[in-house]
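User: Show me an example of a complex going from sequences to structure tokens.

Assistant: Sure. Here are the input components:
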Amino acid sequence: MQQPLALDISLQVRGFTVLLGVSGVGKSSLLKAIAGLLPARVSPYGDLMVEQRPIAYLPQGYALFPHLRAWENVAFPLPRSAHRRTDALVLLQRVGLEDLANRFPSELSGGQKQRVALARALARKPQLLLLDEPTSALDMATRDEVLDELVREVHEFGIPVLAVSHDPHLAMLADHMAILRDGRIVQEDTPAEVFARPRHVASARLLGFRNFLSGRVVDSDDESHLQVAGPDWQLQADWQAGLSVGTSVQLALRAEDIYLQDAGAAHFCPNHLSVQVKACRKEGLSMRLYLEGPTSLEMLLPRHQAEAAQITVGNFLKVCVQPRHLQIIR
Amino acid sequence: MRSADHDPGFPVYRVTAGFDRFRWMGPALAGLIFVFLLAPFAALIFATDWHDFHFAEGDLGAIRTSLLYSMLALIISVLAGTPLAWWLARGQGRGKWFFDALLMLPLLTPPLALGILLSSFYGPYSPVGSLFSHAGIYLTNTAPAFILAQIYGAMPYYIIAARAAFEGVPRELEQISRTLGRNRFQTFWRVTLPLARIGLSAGVALAWVRAMGEFGIVLIVAYFPEGIPVKLWVNLQDIGLSAVYPLLWIFFLVAVPLPLWIGLRARRQTQAMF
């Protein structure tokens, strides 16, 4: 081994499982180790040769054989027999590509390549499918579509999948997810649970949280709500067990969970902040605002609000945060 | 470039005008070098006495010798060179750089010098040579000696080309083949070899030309049986320039078409693949 990598991981794979981690923490190496392409101690199948492991592996660029047509790629793992071509075509049909069976990989789009590679990986009827950054080689225009399709197909084939990615969008579609950091799993649960309650600031960042406020618990109202205060602010969050007054905590807040407080708001907002717009940037159809007030905040304003509010740099705004959107990280 | 009509107040600079005058120089120079390289081949057409086109005595035997033994030398070079080239491209042994450097030795040695080395190593008075002669194989002025000389001339070139061809095959594709249930041998046969075939063909073509044309080593080790290069030399010495041309034509006809055909085929396939 040239560069030994310290990874000690035990992970449950349930249905479509996504292992989330930033680039360079060894996600790809983990998959290669499971597939047997890197020397490592793994279980199960650790004592089998690469070609004997019932594991299918889809690398980032899909690694289709450029000298073989789509159907020949799919037929590659199939044993020599009279119905080899037919079997390959059936698999291609399941991913909706039977019309392109005679094309070479260079004549296929990114999404089509992925589906051919998927059909090829599944031709051996593996017991586990490994996906390395399945969204990285897709273009933005078709990405969500291809992803939905991929998840649907994977469920259809009924094979457990372990995908590694840095893309929280992919994790949202998963049945089960885990976060990899510093060579170990720091959190593992359903996406709903992990996205709602990230346990570390780094995890929260990975999951798309943009605002982090350091403060201290100043009031804990018997099992209904908490007050957390920083230097110039005080915010109400949902109650959590085990947080006594004086504990220092981090509040994590998504840019899209901050909203403009308008005069005729029907709902009650216990947390409002007066802020000034320092910078704003169009982000597709919405607008990203960088706010300065009691604390720096990043806010994503949906299109209809951005159009109505006519916001420019220097404006003073009143923004609002719901207690349930403030994630407390100890 | 803006035209003067639109903007009469400003002069229009034609920056390229000065260079335009010398634009013909590039193609002309290229053409000149081209002519320089190919002129001797044209001379062959004019120098050949087409009215009195006949082979010298023993020419046909030389052609037969060269074709048959070059083919054998080529086959042996490919069979033995391919595994070594693969190991050099893929192996991760600690001292691989050393073998890399050693492989350059036969390439960098002048053929005549290599011939002398071979005759002292395989010659009748050397330990290796006497060992072979005990087995009934004499490695001086025999068919085996001729083939041996050609192998030494051709195989290093084949190995260098084949090694580059194997290095061009993405390792990931070989790994994927393994995860798809194919063992090392099947992977080599079904993925590595087809993907390296263009470079390998180039290596085969190169080795063929080297083996056919090998003169220096053959001259020392296997003057007999006379192959085309040695026969050309003999004709030149014994009869003169006029006796050389018929054999020279045959030499070109058998040596050049194979590399040319492989080169063109490889080019077509590359275009289809990528």
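The lines above are the inputs; the final block is the predicted structure for all two components together. Residues 141 and 183 of chain B are 45 Å apart (CA to CA).
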